[in-house]
């Protein structure tokens, strides 16, 4: 008994710490599978011992969040749902009742209040009793209606979510975090609770209604499903839902299971709620769960395999993530051979060592995870140097989570964006070298500096074998790299990523210095400042860049890789000097507006994004358009010229 009580206390502390880390700090110190297993063990002990601690996660729902957002108490507590992985338990719950079955979305629960047809308030679930007011952020969700036809008081609940596609895109762009977000739920939580709604607006947060709490004066025919239809009519997206009975529930669960992989919105299970509103409300609730609804979590398909190696994958933030590589197994219809372990803390929790027999599964039937380590040989050989740059590593302890970092500020993995700029259209124009592809090349050691890009043929076989590549993709990339060897000095200079130096500034400086690489490399700040259009700040950063021995070395080596073409139009190099253009609409005689811009800048002109009193010409093939730019140009007396008229200016 004493040992069981001790174990129960250990479980309460461990689960509370894991949940606090997950919900408040967006950190994961254990897998979902491990959390559920320990939670079930705690429930079993509490039942056996007849004791439940006040701090037990089986009693307390959620935690107070740490934030400066205003707090507000919910009108009625928001309880968790009782859950099962057994379809038979759902049949028991249903009995002879009809119910609504829907996705259990994996995001952040929000309560919305409308009055007079206007969105008045949005509050997060918080700890179930007190949430955070995030009305300003809710107003910039992608799909929340700000005005609705119903003008009474409407209170509803739903889930704020970020799609897998947006998660991957946004996560790639985030550099000012200790580590990338581990899943869409964590990213959504951070996005919804921003203090600046402009950031929230960029995150593509969407809201899906799942419960109508109150709407006085509306006859809902005593039906939850009718309520969902009514919410649709008010302009809300609602969670996908189907009618279900005891006889059909097994088929419905199978239908959702078959569709989860194609579902763009993260889900961690299903929810059943009685369709009969009055019946459900008459049942009341327990201290923790409402009695009118039930959650179903997928019974994970688990396979046993052998851990072959731990691959350490550096990121642009400096974080080095451990990835488990194991003998391939079939899971949920696909072959799986790797799973992220996230951090050293989880490795230590699993006592993970090469050669161990492990059990793997797909969290929510999508994301490969390690469920259990059967042999537990222990963590060893944490790398002391970064696998990309060879710089020293350090183990950091933050929010009770051990993580590995590369300490080298010049680590190539931290500068993926610099390589992406080098390959971009306005720089070396190498098609097929996306940020994601460059990241793979860097992690595999194929690219350490800019010149390595011109010698990727050394790794031809490895690249052809990479996921997403093949013979054709490799040949296209190879040809694009060879084409990039023919370039201009301004493009090469811009590709270096010198602070404050855009493509127009690079062209201006190179022309003023006679397109001479040696003069460009040795120019002083004073010499640069004398160039029209180059201020002291630009002159200073440009000269400072080439004072660095490593920068000079890479530039000199790049000059040996490329052939510098003389830019055409040298005879009218200053034709557009001091002239400002704005380009809008589609073009017909050029590949894109970027080419028009290049022709202008090549002749000393400047292209801006908006029409102002300093604009000299607006280029728009639809001269008579009533667009905002055309209207502004007419107001200011700025000439609107067609593409043909612009070409005449080039030729005369």
Mean pLDDT figure? 83
Number of helices: 24
What best-fitting shape do the alpha-carbon axes yield?
globular
CA(first)-CA(last) distance: 97 Å
CATH topology of the largest domain: D-amino Acid Aminotransferase, Chain A, domain 1
Under the CATH scheme, which class of the largest domain? Answer: Alpha Beta
Low-confidence stretches: 60-67, 175-179
Cα gyration radius (Å): 30 Å
Based on helices, strands and strand pairing, what is the structural class?
A: alpha+beta
CATH superfamily (homologous) name of the largest domain = DNA ligase/mRNA capping enzyme
In total, how many domains does the architecture comprise?
A: 6
Largest sheet: 7 strands, antiparallel
* Helical percentage: 25-40%
Proportion of strand residues: 15-25%
Number of distinct beta strands: 24
Do you know the CATH architecture of the largest domain? Answer: 2-Layer Sandwich
Which helices and strands occur, and which strands form pairs?
Elements (H helix, E strand, L loop, with lengths): L1 H24 L6 H18 L21 E3 L9 E2 L2 H8 L4 E7 L2 E8 L2 E7 L5 E3 L2 H4 L15 E8 L2 H10 L10 H9 L4 H6 L3 E10 L8 H10 L7 E4 L4 H11 L7 E8 L2 H6 L10 E4 L6 E12 L4 E13 L2 E7 L3 H7 L6 E7 L3 E7 L19 E6 L2 E6 L9 H8 L11 H9 L16 H6 L5 H14 L1 E3 H7 L7 H10 L4 H6 L2 H5 L6 H12 L1 H13 L1 E3 L14 E4 L9 H10 L3 E3 L8 E3 L8 H9 L3 E2 L1 H9 L1
Parallel strand pairs: 2-11, 19-20, 21-22, 21-23, 23-24
Antiparallel strand pairs: 1-6, 3-9, 3-10, 4-5, 4-7, 7-8, 10-11, 12-13, 12-15, 13-14, 13-18, 15-16, 17-18
Helix pairs in contact: 1-2, 12-13, 16-17
